[in-house]
Amino acid sequence: MILGRVSLILLLLWPALAQDRRIAISGTVLDPTGTPVPATAVTLRKSGGIEQTTATDHAGVFRFEPLDAGTYVVSVTRDGFVAASVPVRVGGRSPAPLRIQLKLAGVRQEITVAGEAAPVSVEAGENRDAVSLDRSMLENLPVFDQDYVAAISQFLDPGSVGAGGVTLVVDGMEQSSVGVSASAIQEVKINQNPYAAEFARPGRGRIEIITKPASARYHGTFNFLFRDYRLNARNPFAATRPEEQRRIFEGSFTGPLGQGRKMSFLITADHEEDDLQSVVFASGPAGTIRQNVANPHRNSEYSGSITRQLNDRHVVFVRGNYRFGSEQNRGAGGFVLPEAAADFEDRNGSVIYNDLWNLSPKTVNQFRISAARSAAPLRSVTNAPAIVVLDAFTGGGGQVDQKTTENHTQINEFLSGQAGRHQWKAGINVPDISRRGLTDYSNFGGVFTFSTLDDYRRGRPFSLVQQGGEGRTVFLEMVLGAFVQDEFRVSRDFSISAGLRYDWQNFAHDTNNYSPRLSFAWAVGRKRKTVLRGGGGFFYDRTGTQPLFDLKRFNGLRVRRAVVTGALSDEPLDAAGFLAVPTSLARFASGWYVPYTMQYSAGVERQIAKAAVISVSHWATRGVGLFRSRDLNAPPPPFYLARPNPAFSVLRQIESSGHLQSDALEVLFRGSLTRYFTGMAQYTLGRAWTDVPGNYAAGTRTIGINSFPADNYDLKGEWARADYDQRHRLNLLGTIRPARFLNLGIGLAANSGMPYTITTGRDDNRDGLANDRPAGVPRNSLQGPGFVELDVRWSYDWRFQKAKKDGARMTLALDAFNVTNRVNYLSYTGNLSSPFFGRAVEAKPPRRLQLSARFSF
Length: 857
Description:
Oligomer: single chain
Distance between the termini: 24 Å
Strand content: over 45%
Radius of gyration: 28 Å
Structural class: mainly beta
Number of helices: 6
Helix content: under 10%
């Protein structure tokens, strides 16, 4: 079946392979917003007087061919922009495509050559402590499943991430997913211009992605990835090796439409077949449970776009995307038995329209709007009451039956221009106008929680949570931002960037959310190889959608939530008993406000070689008014006999009362030290303390807005190390090419451990939660294990026609993840009542091998 699909692709594309392709210099010209610039003059010169001229097509792409080996200079000129020139050396093969980003007249241009580190600069958006992966790096690094977002997420700063998780910005607009397949991604970056007023979150808390533009020439890339359990090392917690296999078919195809060369298309597709297995390692009444549970995934995503050049100054773009995914036995693994798992589906369709118009030689307007619709049902495998024995096993039914729907609209309207020494930009971005729906029947069958296995054998749960009523909730969420920013070039060696942003949310009562931003850059010395850079700003947060659903559902009328503690039976409440138990409520605290973060930094950037830069920076983050929850109706000390208001159960109050203090010293290297190595390395010495619990992993973050303290009447013990606090973090990504047949990609992550909390495993204060700690013990007092993983990729190119260096080629690659097969344990169990106290029950994956084939032309 696999060989048949590959053969069919090759057969269909063979006419394109036969095209005559020789050594060439190609690239894309972009405006300051990162949008392709059409109809732009490009000149190619070689020593000796040889000169060629061309113009970019409607996608901003240019190309010169055929060429001989030698040194060339590519020059770009266009009215209203500063002329740009970049030297290119051509050997026996075509160099990587250039990416030339112009500056409006009066401002120094930015020129980025793929695979090289640009020299230091005083421009606000050219800070060298940014992390950036261009197309060449993406293709040659060991990236698991081509998930570039996850690969670069390790460079994020957890303290800069908001309550809704990592901010993903695709082509200048916030998105929930990339929207195109992996081969259509041109660049991925973090912390570019960290204090830009254009964005709601700091640069170290957002990921920016630039996708490939459509091309006036036919180009295509097709990837096939394969993994099989026979090539993997053994999981330390599995009785037998999980019989897993994964197959990924992915690609993109672009070219012109019609004869006028004013229209082009881009089609992308990604189909993933994942026959995975989860490993259960738990303790039940009969002893240790070790079981492999089938966890198959199926994911497909398709997109198509058309770019149209209306005239020399006006380009429009339309893209459609459809995504479908499914997963069986979600949640199984670790303590969770397969009977408590759930099946999941996700369907999402979206349309994006982009309009770029050069109003004048010095003014550019960009309008962008997207509309999307999604539906995601989650169904429990078993409908029996859920059984939770803390840190021993979770069985019974899943009790997670839900369906979320969303009709979503986003709008960006930006205007940028130049006036003298000022480069300005202003606009309105509406990241969210959504009609959100939730059909929730979770916990309708009841959830029983036991402290120990002995309590389970005796049928003595310490709490029962059972819900009932009207499970359908709908509300409208609106988020709006407006900004203005100005980059002022004071002199050749000094620049200042200042901006002001305003954020508004329809459910927030405070309307004074203004956030000023300011940064500077100063080049010192005659050679201008050292730049001092600093800045700071305010950043307002958002709640995310889950708390808003809770406020709508648990209002005392829609969904009844009974929380019963004390002496209980192990049978769910009948109808009469359920109505007799007081319900729970959720509400915002009186006078709550939107949390904000203050972040400031200072550092030095030094060009240490022609294509190498090192930066040293100190970053400080202060969070004020962070969201957290508290039960105002918890039984009071010292005897915890009853709830103060017997008419209610849990009275959850969401407060703006948390704080965060985070400091980090960061050293970042980018570029090439030798002719064989190109890459980046980041070392961070950090410290983060907060009184808001929150977990951070793989680009997502669960913030304390949904968590409760151990003692609702005494919060002193909550101030402690943040859950994501790591003293040392080292991340390295790079390529090594000592010979044509030895093309290696390296990925290294080495981090110190994160903390975890010791608990008693009992509900002595009878608030329905077993997060009680021993007397006098603060949160996160225990130290978790460290983490080290080395990933390696080997690849080799076969060209179909050896005399044509830039022609069609096939790339075969072997990736080894965790090549040393180190056992990286996850956080140990801190529950004193658990049979696994002081032990880990899960670990990061062992060594895995991935085979891939890429065909491109």
